[in-house]
## 1
Amino acid sequence: MDTNAPALMPILTVPDPVLKTRARRVEPADADAVRALIPRMFAAMYAAPGIGLAAPQVGVRLRLTVIDLMPDDKPAPLVLVNPEVIAASDELATREEGCLSLPGQYADVTRPARVTVRYHDAAGARQELSAEGLLSACLQHEIDHLDGVLFIDRISALKRNMILRRLAKEQRQQRERDGGR
Ligand code: GNR
Ligand code: NI
């Protein structure tokens, strides 16, 4: 048994201030840190489980995100370094989103139906990806995290406050179950 595997990175939850902070671009000097971080981000994402994870969610303020929609239950990992939306459709689409940083909270979010994203992959190669459906929503959700934006910032204040109150209550109850310290 491998007892030397690094611990799972904890995923930050609201109201952690890192989630509201804009992340900086990955630079060549970050290459070693990013190479070490990517497998740990995938491990945290798959364990959660989630279909995407942005570096700020694990406390790292870099413009880096990993995604895996696991089509047909098979891994399809994507690493996006410095991703940018370079085109977005006028047509909008609404779907229910959740976020590992707002555990147990879901809401319908309206975004451009289709986007084209430019990024660098794990090998440093420049890539472009056009997406619709769940991948489109996930790409936009993850890039939002890099700008300190959460899905609740894209819904009505009424629904946002309902979610924030419910989350705070559930976090308080969780702490009480854990022993309240
Ligand atoms: O696991 C996740 N599911 C999801 C569903 C709809 C739209 C976006 C997402 S991303 C989310 C994981 C997460 O919080 N990524 O930042
Ligand atoms: Ni999220």
## 2
Amino acid sequence: MQNEFEIKKEMCEIGKRVYNRGMVAANDGNFSVKLNDNEFLCTPTGVSKGFMTPEYICKVDANGNVLQANKGFRPSSEIKMHMRVYKERPDVNSVVHAHPLYATTFAIAGIPLTQPIMPEAVIALGCVPIAKYGTPSTMEIPDAVSEHLQYFDAVLLENHGALTYSDSLLNAYHKMESVEFYARLLWQTMQIGGPQELNKEQVEKLYEIRRQFGLPGKHPANVCPNAKAGKPSCHTCGGNCSGGAAPKADADLVAEITRKVMSQLGM
Ligand code: 13P
């Protein structure tokens, strides 16, 4: 079991990895670790996470109020987003937020990562939906993210970046790496004619492997909101996993039906 100082050192190490891999620019990104139900360590606001030392790290309570912070340091401006994840996902011990280039590109384009293109992404992540846009540091982001927390372990933040969470800091960080790798592969294959997707049977076999591994987190095959609604589940639902946000295809369908009804009514 790591002591608090060791966890702070690990947070600095992860900060270097996030920064050195270009998953954030300048002072962007933040992450946190749960110590117990009322104590959480988090990165400070407004510093480069690539150059932190343990005394930078702040401690907050379950509401994000400061319990301890050295002079000149305040908790991340996104602490409310982290706290919402811990509140609604008791299995989570660490939350990582970054702006990786390819994942953020998809988040800006409004395209969720839902195509089954490689085994590791299917097993580790399932689908990655998009939480609707919110102003950074306000409750809009925690509220948008909340819609996806019971179904997914990684979420794109519309026009902003990505959020991952898991049972440890290293696993939450690794999920961020996996999201970015998945996004990058998707982007690259889109440049040369688009990906060949794995078929339903292949996806089912991968879900079975995930079950056998007993990986922590929400299982994409069991919890997809579409599956619960009797529709095709993750990786076959064509991007309809984006929680409350109306999928574009549905919006187009509604517009088309409206047009037809209006023309029949002579309007
Ligand atoms: P903080 O430095 O306040 O954590 O904010 C960085 C960021 O990326 C906000 O989205």
